[in-house]
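Continuing the series of single-chain predictions for the mutant panel. This is the parent chain; the variants come on the following pages.
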Amino acid sequence: MATIRWLHLVAMAVWVGGLITLGALVAALRRHGVEREVLQAMARRFGVVSWTAMGLLVPTGLFQALNRGWDGRLVTKAALVVLLVALALWHQLAAKRQSPALRGALQGAILVVSLGVVALSVLL
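Parent structure:
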């Protein structure tokens, strides 16, 4: 069980830490005039890393939940994870067709929901 929890926590750190890092880097790179293609390449690479992390988060989280039992906080966390995955998937699939304002709003929502999941995790 300790290995599952460790994998879950590392994957969570990669997901949330990556969001914060990428957000800070993109803002700085935009200010310095880095071309859009470079930013898109960064986003694609982060997509591979972040979806790999999510691919570890979901099964390790479910495994822990089944061994712990479900309560209100865990159900809320699971609902937020479903929302998070839906937002991230929407953002990734439609980013090229979205306005910069909508992309930014989605990125912000993904970060806020991710931090909410982390906050609930601390309470569990």
